[in-house]
Amino acid sequence: MTILLEKKYIPLSHYFQAATNPSIRLTFSEIEQIMGQNLPNAAYLNKSWWKKSKPPAKHFHAWMDAGYRVTEVEPDRYVVFEKADAKNTAAGTDEEDKDILLIRTAEHGDARSLALLQKAVEAESNFMLYGKDERSLSTQRVRKQIIEWKQSGHSAIIIAILNGQHVGYLMVIGNEAKRAQHRAALVLGLMKEAQGKGIAKSLLEKAEDWAKQKGITRLELTVIEDNERARKLYEKAGFEAEGTRHRSLIIDGKEHDEIYLAKFLD
Q: What is the pTM of this model?
């Protein structure tokens, strides 16, 4: 029998399906970041909400269908999930817990976390358009952008969630003009602590899948010429250089060129 989860719990289900750790401890905030929406009040008020395992409730399928059960709940703080065979799995092994990565499109409930993430990425990178504290990103502004882009159908924000924390994003910026509806620009941001884990590659792959579904056949972006790591990433993903925008950015008083890159999906 097929169980239909409420839409809000599907990302949480995907998270547990990707997990292999015998035990997972998630704060309430991390669970909501995975979902992109708030938990119901009952989840905060009653431990029993987490312990439910029978209809008419369905939310528990998000973890139970992946073989996990709730073993500990500290209201408004954290929940511990364990594999049904966790004791057998853990016996005789000292392996560290593996990272759990979830890539999904942003929901309006991600606005606050996404605004903070963008500020954090801009604060620690010299390769973004904006520098540290150069612009104001309110939760309301980001929420409006997410909603408007979802409604437009030609643009999207894809986020990377690593172990329950938002660590990266990729914006796919499409066009309303019919003559340019086949193309979209990309803007990628990733926290330094999350680099080297294949997350940027996963974000690009998700963006390509989304773009193909929307009939977009050309993806384009710019990268600062000095950002060799990012350029290698894009070239490895199939992007090709199309030209140079000379002296296009001034960072800490120094002029930088940008490289135009593009990839055709058809």
A: 0.90
> Starting at the edge strand that comes first in sequence, how are the strands of the sheet with 23-27 ordered?
23-27, 78-83, 68-74
How many whole angstroms separate alpha carbon 102 and alpha carbon 202? 9
Give the phi and the psi of residue 65 in degrees, each rounded to 5: -70, -15
Q: What is the DSSP letter of 53?
A: -
Q: What region, left, alpha or beta, does residue 253 occupy, with left being phi > 0 and alpha being psi -120 to 50 degrees?
A: left
CA distances from 254 to 121, 122, 135, 233, 257 (A): 21, 18, 20, 24, 10
Is 92 exposed, middle or buried (CB count within 10 Å of its CB: 0-12, 13-18, 19+)?
exposed
CB half-sphere exposure, 14, CA atoms < 13 A: 17
**Using alpha carbons only, how large is the chain's radius of gyration in Å?**
21
pLDDT tens sequence across 99-122: 999 999 999 999 999 999 999 999
The 8-class DSSP code of residue 238 comes to T
